[in-house]
Protein 1
Amino acid sequence: MAWFLQDRGAAVTVYDADHAASGASWGNAGWLTPGLTVPLPEPDVLRYGFRSALRPSSPVFVPPRLDPALWRFLTGFALHCTHRRWSRGVAAYAPINQMAIRAFADLADADATPRPHEARPFLACFRTTGEATTMLSELRRMQDAGQRVHFDYLTGGQVQQAQASVSDEVRAAVAIHGQKYIHPPQFIRALTQSVIARGGKLREWIRIDDVDAEPNAVWLTDNGGVRHRHDAVVLATGAALGRLARRFGVKQLVQAGRGYSFTVTGTQVPTSPVYFPNQRIACTPLHEPLYPIGEPPYGEEDTELLRVAGMMEFRRPDEPLDPRRIRAIVDTLRPLLDGVDLDRRRTEWVGSRPCTIDGLPLIGATQDRRVFVAGGHGMWGVALGPVTGKLLAEQIIAQTTPPQLKPFDPQR
């Protein structure tokens, strides 16, 4: 967002309650996959069932507790898990998905960020051919809704020919073409440095507690009681979006859908992203070191690393990491990948994806002409981050709403 506002001539200041490149921007899988970017409340989610979701080992986990706000969210979420609403959401995503990878290219062309890696192939893997039918059906419905997605269906030994690290227990896979991926920490660090180099100001470890809009200015009050004056503000506070945005007419509930990740290595790390949809586990090769110079290395300099990410749990963002969820990922993944050392893990992490009831992000103007919102992307915050910034910068500067953003009106 900040970079694209600068590109249109705006002076920007970024406030971060933590350090830059932290949170979900740091620990995610790094996928740029318009072929998979669809609303989270899909009909298939309901097949896990209420009883399954109460188990800590379940891919989708809801802790059994009395939390009225959470249960309001889950009730609304469940009501959107229909084929009709899902197809309508896919149609809403299609135009912005078509622009998503181009926005990454814009940043790379300007030397602001590293260029994304080609996923050759991007492989969604299944134990049986029967398990693959749900994804195949979804991909065809995406095509019917206007989403450009090209794929091949692989069975038997074709799977291991496409990705040697996948074990023989995987007997079916869908190879989705035209997808990309990034090294998330390196990408965010580079983008941060570019914004600063272009004159942007970064204020780390400053939490904004209040937003007060006046006819000619917006005042931000930070956690130290200091007030900051700006011409306009973009609220992009992730799972905490509702805290500041609600008073400006944003009524949609935003719930933390927490995901886990860790990093491993091995003798046969996958060479491209591998996804296990039924288990909700994503594996992404990191072709560059994970740590900056000066920090302890993982192992040999030429060791390939694998980021393993997954799970969805509806908990408060500030709750600690649950080691049972890490164990569930490891136990599930162990028979599905060969040559990966899952017992030598580093950077175990949990972070909060900002999820909306209808699975669509909140991007655009609020009731106040100086206050804008960018959030609620769920699992697609990285994939849609640059295109969100590009389109919203256009709306802020030109004061017109791009047609791609109309389905994501924060006041809907």
Protein 2
Amino acid sequence: MITESQTSLTTDDDHPREACGVFGIYTPDREAARLTFFGLYALQHRGQESAGIATSDGQRACLHKGMGLVSQVFTEENLAPLTGHLAIGHTRYSTTGSSNLRNAQPYLIETLHGPLAVAHNGNLTNALDLRQLLLTRGVGLSSTTDSELITQILAAPPESWNGNGNGGNGKHPSEDRWIERIQALMRIAQGAYSLVLLTANAVYAVRDPFGMRPLCLGRVGDGYVVASETCALGTIGAEFVRQIEPGEIVRLDDRGVTSVVGLEAQARALCVFEYVYFARPDSDLEGQVIHRVRQQMGQQLAREVPVEADIVVPVPDSAIPAAIGYSLQSGIPFTEGLIKNRYIGRTFIQPDDALRKQGVRLKFNALGANLRGKRVILVDDSIVRGNTARPLVQLLRDGGATEVHVRVSSPPVRHPCFMGVDMATYTDLIAHRLKVDEIAQHIGADSLGYLSLEGMLDAIQATTGQRLGYCTACFSGNYPIDIPEWLFADSREKLIFEGVWR
């Protein structure tokens, strides 16, 4: 039951892309697939290239996945066969593995202990070593993703290669063997991962020992749910219980919630870009609503890089909270200056050459009535490649703005990410190549100012009331884990040849 649909991006967005969203549910009294569909709908912002759902009724596992948005992949007809009280789901943006159907998730395979389905958010930094490990053992691979490596290692962990097919000591029920296998995986997997796994009778949630990618637990009726963000819980009427802890394994089944230490937690390193851009503004992370944190970032930005202007305008939709914060702190009125066409980001119809040259004008229109004769502060949450900032500045000028001052509610992105964010090479990053004043000149802005790294962390602490560990590698170059030297290669062709990067 795997289908493929056509999708296309109409514009080259400058924001970083998160790897994906994951969702898992045990619900004894409702349709797990239907709840998973709506949970994935709420996580659509985390990945728009493919979507999939795997289910189990305790006897049989089913899968449907395809290319495109959740609403394009699933219909009443293909949801109907996905029966059962257990389900996991996935929305994908490719970071490891190219964007095609064979790399869509979840993966579903048959093992010695029954069906196993896996959905993964993150990147393994030792994927090349693990791939070689599997290939030398004669394991056939059908995709280029590290997520398939995880699936195959869970099916036959290294401990089982000595002839003991159990992958454990054989003294526990089959579901407990899965915990042993997950622990075996965690001992050899390096990098970022939040996983949801489906077996015949349970759903498992797993978070890496650094907690780089988010994962939370909720309760719905007599069942339980896990998801990348709390916004997915609210969508299906679930109640938030807590965050899954770094290094933790959680099992959901008819016994309720079982928590096991998978691997001892390390120094926390939650990706700070969850606060900057990835997470939905209505999600709760570490006890605070993301919208409030971003608003505080905007206020800090106004304190650090003020400028005289008439109006504050956000890049919709992601920079709205920061722009509100900048306006509150500076006293400069907040207003709309760019109107976003929210339905053109994905389409089955390719734009012709003339439309393609319109670039961001396909996605935004300038609101001339608000811009004409005004000095504008344009607030964005990040500038990664610099592809869209210049046309956005020009769009505001064409709309009548006399000055355009760009303010960014995060520090300059100067270093690549290898833990699940699409920022894979130094040459991609405009702030690595150019100084701030050179970037301002490049994008045509009258001035450009970024939030400092310390200011960003202070803003997070001011709203959450605590300063837990964060991964700031894309800003600081300080990686929480050792990165293999070959991953820093700037040649995508080399990485494609090695079959482990898109």
Protein 3
Amino acid sequence: MNLDLTKLLAGSTNSVDFEFKLTQEDCEQLAQDFPQTEFDYPMVLSGNVSACEDGTYDVKISSNVGFSEPCARCAGPAHAELSIYIETKAIRGSKTEENEDCLFIKNRELDIIMPFFEQIVLEYPQYGILCKDDCKGLCPVCGIDLNKKSCNCRAKTVDPRLAKLSELLK
């Protein structure tokens, strides 16, 4: 999805505000990158592009992205939200070493979806999310959900490397 910058580039306005509602079809790449994650739709992407005196353009993009996936400890349902905020420059021209961090305006349009997806990938929790902060997880021996029931497996098993230390406690 591209943002039309014709009026901004012609000088008829100094900034262009936008708001896009992304549907599940618009976000197929996210579904491929995160197969176990269900994103909340529509995703509302808003911001603006404004002209600078040096011939570049300031680009600001923000969104709150809600998503659900299995809890990293107990595999139960978990929900979280990412606050995405991007502030970058856009330029006309071709890519060089000096401007490789900029967005590029092509055919009077600016692609704001790809930087948005890239930021989601960068900010996505690396080790998963939890259903609650004090989630106890699953018992490593019997597999019971320790949030719902308790078991005695932990008392029975001692790591053989720590067996001598446990004798000191007796």
